[in-house]
Request: fold
Amino acid sequence: MDRITKSLVKDFLKQQEIESKTESKDFEIFCNYSLVCKEYNDSFSFEDVSTGINQGIDGICIIVNGKLVTSIEEIKDLLEINKFLEVLFVFIQAKTSSKFVGSEIGNFIFTIKDFFSDDPKLNESIPKLVEIQ
Reply:
């Protein structure tokens, strides 16, 4: 990771009062926050976006009718109130490398496809989010 990005991540962690873990985990949190903020203008918990240990996806954000949701119950409530659902899925993969690796991009796409499959195999660490889709 270059010096400018390291500095941005360090400042971000300090501002958010997040204890530094590893360079890659810190960068993942920074990326998740930065990308979700582009789509969702309210506050949110980093844990609601991070997938933890998941093959291919570092962050998932599901926004339904303008609200970041983390459970099927929230979606049912929104459907009852609004009578419609407008859904936006944000998938994030953060890499500290300075170049793209085709196999990693392919893995990211494969994992997203698995997320939406009828019988997901790779997304066992995020069962609540898989249930929502």
